[in-house]
Structures are given as C-alpha cells and as structure tokens.
Specification:
A 6-stranded parallel β-sheet has the order 1-6-5-2-3-4, sandwiched between helices. The protein is globular. It is of the alpha/beta class and about 230 residues long. The protein is built from 7 helices and 6 strands, in the order αββαβαβαβαβαα.
Length: about 230
C-alpha cells in the first residue's frame, strides 16, 4: 500500500510539473507572438506576405482553413501591404502538394505569377519560418493564418530573425477547433524546446533564393508546364 501511495504521488508530481511546463511555455509564446491584426487595412507595409501551408484535397484544392489563409493574403496584397507572396507548405513527395494548390488558387484570384514565390519544404511551421529567413532572405513579413496558430507562427518568425506581424485568417467556424486548440498547446511547448533547447533546424536546406529575383525559379516543372 505504501509503494502504491508513493507511486501515485510521483505520478501526480510529474503531471503537475508537466502541466505547469505547458502552461508556462504557452504563456511565453502567446505574450511574445505579437502583434496580431484583425483587419488587413490595419497592417503596416512589409516586404512579403507569408502563407503557411495546411491540408489540401487530393486534387490540390485547399481545405477551408488553408483557403481562408489565402483569402487573408489576397486582401493584404490587394491593399498594397506587400508586393510579394511566399506560399510555404509540404511538397516533399509526389502525390501530395500544398504549394501548387495555393499558387493555383492565387492565380485564379488574379495574382500575377511573378508575384508568387513557392517554398516546397515548409513541412512544419518551424521549417516555414526558418527557411523564409535562411533560404529566401526574408527580413520582415505579414503572416496569414488562423488566430490559434498565429502566436506560435509569430514566435517562430521572431526566433528566425523576421520582423513579422500577423493577420487573422478566421473566416468561419472550424469543426476541429477544440482539437486544434489542444494540439496547439502542445505545439507551443515544442516550439520553445525547438528554439531554445534543441536548436532544431529545418529538415531541408537549400541555396539562397532572392525575393527580388524571378519567382519562376521557385516553380517546379509541373507548374512551369502549366503556366
């Protein structure tokens, strides 16, 4: 019985420490992951609008959450808040392609091809922000994503040396919002560990790509064939 009580105390103690750790890291990310704007016309001007990837359908059509991020980016671009758009997502395997889906959506919305730069290796939010700085030389940016995701995105952007602001992309009620909130609480803790303890680097590096150059250099062969 004594051993059982001791074990229960240990488990409770570990759980308490873990809960406090998650709460503390979340507070740090939320307090430092600023500023966040609700309306595109409130934004300051920046060099580039950065859209983190999210799920797409098999044909490349963005899921609603990703479409809403693109809508926010389009609004900011139309207002002249930045002259370039960088879409970053998962395209490491044939058959799943977030970035071409985003680019196609923007083209159909009237954004010129030469404005749209593509990062095919934005596998995680950390990769997206780190590669934006390391590969694309981004110094300042407008981040377009859902509110629950913005604090961590901004935190990681700041950690990468990017002077970033956020624009909320919420345009509807998302069915998985409660689950997203739970996942995000854990992801914020991981973001702190990645940047301050493990110094995690993006999975893929790459040669420098200037946003002052030709956007076509970031378009893969499939995209170039269909332009």
């Amino acid at each position: 019985m004594l051993r059982l009580r001791t074990l229960v105390k240990i488990v409770m103690g570990v759980s308490l420490v873990g809960t406090l750790g998650i709460a503390t890291t979340n507070l740090i990310v939320i307090r430092t992951g600023v500023p966040i704007y609700e309306q595109a016309d409130q934004l300051p001007n920046k060099t580039v609008i950065l859209v983190p990837g999210a799920r797409v359908y098999q044909d490349g059509t963005p899921y609603p959450a990703l479409e809403d991020r693109l809508v926010a980016a389009l609004e900011a671009w139309k207002l002249g808040k930045a002259t370039r758009i960088l879409v970053s997502g998962d395209h490491q395997y044939n058959g799943y392609d977030e970035v071409n889906g985003m680019r196609t959506w923007l083209l159909e919305a009237g954004v010129p091809s030469e404005v749209i730069f593509m990062d095919h290796a934005g596998l995680r939010t950390l990769d997206t922000m780190a590669r934006a700085a390391q590969v694309f030389g981004v110094k300042d940016a407008i981040l377009c994503t859902q509110r629950f995701h913005l604090s961590r995105s901004l935190f990681l952007a700041h950690q990468a040396g990017i002077d970033a602001v956020g624009l909320t992309a919420d345009r509807r009620i998302y069915p998985k919002a409660p689950l997203d909130a739970v996942r995000e609480a854990i992801a914020r803790t991981v973001a702190i560990l990645d940047t301050t303890v493990f110094h995690t680097q993006p999975k893929f590096a790459g040669p420098p790509i200037s946003l002052e150059g030709d956007a076509a250099q970031t378009h893969d062969r499939w995209t170039q064939r269909t332009d």
